[in-house]
Design goal:
Blueprint lengths: L5 H17 L1 H11 L7 H21 L3 H25 L4 H31 L4 H28 L7 H19 L6 H55 L7 H7 L20 H6 L13
């Protein structure tokens, strides 16, 4: 049962709004700074932006506190900005195309929210809450479904990359504050609470995955780097022996050591994997990886 306290309701609602307003700023900044969105599912931010539209409809019709009504609007705006970055950096679309796509999506869903609020308000005021509850539940479903593509990215890459951990952390904290705001509301709103609680739980899965998978990925890259360095030393050794010969050829002793009969064939040559440098390792060593724009029309 809710414990009515108007001051606590507004305070926690405001704190939740601040978190959910600023949560995506680290993600937008990260994508802009790195000029890449690898590892960030564009479906995540798109579906979250759409869910904010329906959550906004629900918040206005239910007359939640003002911070909780403003919150979905800012949340959707930043989600669509991040989605536009995915189109530009990730999908390699032209800047103008990505900009027009982003503005069009914002305008469409902003207009849709306004139309839904105006058309459903009379029914809601007459006691028919079915449409209102439908959009509240739809928002919760979209918030949950949006993280499924991100989970796939984590599974595919075997680590959490591309998505800002600070963004996920702030998002989860904002969900907690929103739930606390509803607890102090005069009438507890179970549907809104379900939406916020799902955010907390699903964000928690991403954070736990980062704590478990990212250290493993770092160890894996260190092992790959060690193999690469060993391969480089072996090649340098063979090259130096060849250069020391007057005729520039390997001596019989070197050929004997590397001949198939002297040791198993599997150990006589380097595997292609040992000679392959992953982009992550090259980035960590400060090497430049040329990128081809290859923008889509």
């Amino acid at each position: 049962m809710a414990i009515h306290n108007a001051v606590a309701e507004q305070v926690f609602g405001t704190m939740g709004t601040i978190c959910w307003t600023g949560q995506l700023i680290p993600q937008v900044w990260k994508s802009w700074r790195e000029k890449a969105t690898n590892g960030l599912s564009h479906w995540l931010v798109l579906l979250w932006g759409i869910s904010g539209t329906f959550l906004g409809v629900y918040a206005f019709l239910q007359r939640l506190n003002v911070p909780l009504m403003i919150q979905p609007q800012l949340f959707s705006f930043l989600c669509f900005i991040s989605w536009g970055q995915c189109q530009y950096y990730g999908e390699k679309r032209a800047r103008a195309v990505a900009f027009l796509m982003t503005v069009s999506v914002m305008a469409f869903f902003g207009g849709l929210e306004a139309i839904l609020v105006v058309t459903i308000r009379p029914m809601h005021d007459k006691g028919n809450h079915v449409p209102t509850n439908f959009f509240g539940i739809l928002a919760a479903v979209l918030i949950s479904a949006a993280l499924l593509p991100q989970y796939w990215e984590i599974y595919r890459l075997k680590e959490v990359v591309g998505i800002s951990i600070l963004f996920i952390s702030i998002d989860m904290i904002g969900g907690v504050f929103n739930d606390l705001s509803l607890i102090f509301k005069k009438e507890f709103d179970a549907i809104a609470a379900a939406s916020y609680t799902l955010v907390v739980v699903l964000d928690g899965v991403v954070l736990v995955s980062a704590l478990i998978l990212n250290p493993r990925a770092r160890r894996r890259r260190r092992a790959e780097r060690a193999v690469l360095e060993a391969a480089s030393l072996q090649i340098s050794s063979v090259t130096s022996r060849s250069a020391s010969r007057p005729d520039g050829c390997l001596g019989m002793d070197t050929l004997a050591v590397n001949s198939p009969t002297s040791r198993p064939r599997a150990n006589s040559r380097l595997s292609m994997r040992s000679l392959t440098v992953s982009p992550t390792i090259m980035q960590e060593e400060g090497r430049h990886i040329p990128q081809q724009p290859n923008r889509k029309p």
